[in-house]
Design brief:
This protein is of the alpha+beta class. It has helices at about 1-35, 170, and strands at about 35-40, 55-60, 65, 70-75, 85-90, 95-105, 110, 115-120, 120, 145-150, 155-160, 175, 180-190, 195-200, 205. A hairpin with a 4-residue loop joins strand 13 and strand 14 (about 195-200).
């Protein structure tokens, strides 16, 4: 009788271990190929994204990427102007940045007096937000005037919606398409400041 109970205990332990192992593998698969969660730590995308927003990024928006290789194995679509993307920061590959796509490969991008011109034509810029100079962290004057510069093949030009306080392509250059992690699509949680008040009105908001 004792031997049977020991075997049963080992069998139960094995079932739990297998279930936990499968759950971890499934979570890793989802995070690698399908969707990944990120937290917004800065105000560079205000008002679209607030500090304390927790977002989901669709990693299948543009295709299936091979882990550690970087390139897409299967393409589902192209990155479009206006997409909000998460990508590996070119100046520090240990960090992820989130910005809005302003120019794609082949576009000539110019900023004149804070207005955006693509291929010589001023474009509608409904997401732009201007807070003015930040006395604690003033970006160079080139934030208001840039280019014209042509976006290279397989690259993107990105900017934060909070144009006066965003460290973006105007200062460090272009984003390689292979470094794009995915397209941001949903705010699933949001805290308001250090007191940790929930911003209920932002929960389940689509990112546009």
């Amino acid at each position: 009788m004792e031997a049977q109970e020991t075997v049963k205990t080992k069998s139960t332990f094995r079932e739990y271990a297998e279930a936990i192992g499968m759950a971890l593998l499934l979570a890793l698969f989802i995070r690698t190929f399908i969707v990944q969660a990120f937290k917004i730590p800065s105000g560079s995308m205000i008002p679209t994204l607030q500090i304390g927003d927790h977002i989901l990024v669709n990693k299948l928006a543009y295709g299936i990427r091979v882990p550690l290789w970087g390139h897409y194995l299967v393409d589902f679509g192209k990155v479009q102007r206006g997409d909000v993307i998460v990508f590996i920061f070119p100046e520090d590959r240990s960090k992820d940045f989130i910005k809005r796509v302003v120019g794609v490969a082949g576009d000539t991008v110019e900023v004149r007096g804070k207005k955006i011109y693509i291929n010589g034509q001023q474009v509608e810029d409904s997401h732009a937000h201007f807070e003015g100079d930040d006395p604690q962290n003033i970006l160079p004057a080139s934030r208001d005037d840039y280019g014209p510069t042509k976006v290279p093949e397989n690259h993107l030009f990105v900017m934060g919606d909070n144009r006066d306080r965003s460290y973006d392509s105007r200062f460090w250059g272009f984003v390689n398409l292979d470094d794009v992690r995915g397209k941001a699509f949903l705010i699933y949680w949001s805290w308001d400041g250090g007191d940790r008040w929930v911003r209920w009105e932002r929960l389940a908001s689509l990112i546009r």
